[in-house]
Predict the 3D structure of the following.
Amino acid sequence: MELQSSQGEDADVADDDFDPWGDGKIDVSDTTPFIPPPLSLPDFLLHGALWGALQLARDCHFEVLQLLVDKHSNDLFPYRFAILDAIPLHAHPMRYLSLFPSVNVVNGEEQRQSRRSPREQDWVESEDGKSLYFLALPQDLSDYIHLPTFGLHSQPSSLTHNQLQNWYKARIAQIEAEAGLTDIALELAQVAASLGVSGLEHLGEELSLLSRLIYDAPRAQEQNLVDAAQWSLSRWQSSDTQTIIQGYLKSSTTETISDDIRRLVIPYLYVLESRLERAGRPDANLHTHLLYDYILSAPLEFCLSIFDASKPVNPSSTRIIRNDEDLARLALARLYSSDELDQWSIMSNIFECLPEWPTAAEHQHDGDAEAETTLASLTEFVQPSTTRSNVAPPQDLFAFFKPLLSTALSHALDILDVHLECGEILARWGVAAPLFWFLQSARDERQQRAWATRMARRPSFGTYGDGNGKGLEDEKGYARLLHDMVKLVGSTTSLARGAFRLLGRLEVTKIFFAGVLGTGRFDIAKKLLSNSQVKKLGPQTIEELCLAASREFYDNAESGNLHSGDMKLAYDCLSVPPLTDAIQAERSFIEATSKIYSFRVTSRPGILITPIEIRLIKDRLTLVARVLSENEGAYKYPDVILDLVYKLGYPKNDAVSEVKVYAMLSDSALQAEDFENAAATTERMVALLNQRQRLSPSSFANSSSTNESPVDEAREVCWHSCYQLGRQSEYKDAQRKMRLLGHALQLCPSENTLDILTVWRRLEDDTMGKFQEDREKDGRGSRGVNGLDRGSRSGALATGSLRAQLSEYAASAARPRLLDQGADAAAIAAKTFNRVAANFPLSLRGMRNRNSEDDGTPRSGSPDVGSQARQAISRGWVG
């Protein structure tokens, strides 16, 4: 109503001032805008001072509130904390500083505000006046004033210092936790300290440092807008120092990291040192320890900025790392624990920031020895184990470098320089190695050889361009690769720890040339033969490298076809060196492999044999046996099969292998029942054996020798083949079978003579019986005019002729034994005669019986069987 009346009065004034003859404008220069009071008089009179104070506190009308508190101090003092709690958490404490309780320095308790001079009490404040609008004062004023969240509590007496301290802590915690206003909480802590409340210094420090993290760190405000609960006092108090340092520098960049450390991290570290000093536990190394831990775990680009700000040439007051030796140790530990493969420029720039110590000449040798000893121990230290991964922790490495003094550190930095240069070379060719690898492989030739092989076989020519972004993968590019690989060997000085130092230049050149061959760049390899460094290898080494590369391609080939895949590479690789016997032998073996593959030879049912299986077979004649067994009709091409044998590595003058091949061919023809081909092949085998015997008679030992010679093995194969074909009943050529049996009789050992003669006798009986049957069927068995049996006479004559012919076969088969024997012919003839003639009566007994079958007794003029055999064989030997 009061507001409406005032508005009506303003409207009347406006109407009175209105000039209907004017321009419609009203002069309001003297008018003052009406501001309604925060409380209306009826409400204040109706609800009382406490209600008014709570309303003013809630609405942040602190000046009016202060007036009200001063006017009604007796009534409002018991509810002073309820009034403070009603103030919003976001309100700045300095705006209502006079409302906060303070501490009396005399008695250490809460100081009650001084009361103003007493005033005359209004009637409405009297008990009679209150009775008109308060029948009875409610016990819970929060329901009455409709502010249930304030939780009103009466505290009529003054609080002790501890109680007051707890209230401030609770209020600070509430502001920080519920509102997230660390700066307001910090202000309240400072207000409490100004009002004499002690014991909040630690909390104030925490809030001050936390406020720096929240408000002063890079992009802190943006981060807190995204996640307001990212950092809080509770999280701060539960976090370790490294987590807090990481929080300070989370959004730092390479440009700001140094300044952020100076203005955020270093003050925080100094606060920690001060706390330890106040606690009686001073730690002078805490600052450097925590800062060094961060640097050792920081990204390399951050480390570069920190090291750049810590250069020895910078003023000491601006340097982050002020100790030169610590600067070198940190760099060594951080770089040698790095597994980055593409940060070589940053690592080199870090090296440029490190100090240099002049070394006196008399201490040069001692420093070298100390550095060598330290790095030897470090090499052992960085080796991976079951309890540690490949990379050693930087903190451990820093502790390892800690005892080194400036002289040893200087030499260690020289070695680091060499390793960085080697790392850049490896990265340039696409085979980068982490820096700690140079330590791990410093005494391991195997690792160095493996990396050199990798470099030679997988070079990247992208860095050596032609100006158009294309790499030079020609002779010039490979020459540069060889130059860099030799450079990685280093010099002969003790400090030059090149990546390939243990290999030597000649060995690196071998690895390089083998790598060129391994990549299939045979055109480049031929051109590189004129390179001065490659020439140092010599023809023999180049031949060995080409053979090794070819065999590697061969062993990895999945197909035996020499016109495609790895097998073609294996064949073409042999065109790089000059043609030698070893190169030609390997080329022939590849050609043989291709032929075997074309014959579709299998290792298992349905699976073709692989080249590596062919190479691993010890007796390669078994491959010929597979070709013949799995390809019908292959026996008809003995020249092709023999050529395959020669290409498999058997020499052309090897009688044993050739005889075995002929035996396989004969057996294959026999299996196909091609007896004529089998017989021709067998006779060719016998002729070959006899020819080699005449050319090299001394190589043929007695077959009865206990130690069987290769020739004995060949003779064994030969007579078995002759015997097998000669005993075949399906083969009808009796004369050829008798000749084959004669060859078998000639070549077999004495213990097998009886078996062959038994077959001979059977063949002889069958042949004679068939001859008689044929004569009888022709009708020639009638008697002549003289009363003689024509058939019997002609049969006897024929039998005698056949017998002589068979004896001639036996003699002719045995004749080669005496050829070219000279004075020993008689002895050999006698020995052979005794061995053969001893069994002759058994085989010729049937003939003798048939010759006397007319009367059952031998004919009077018939010669003795032994004599006939002796004469027949003797004629064969001497004829």
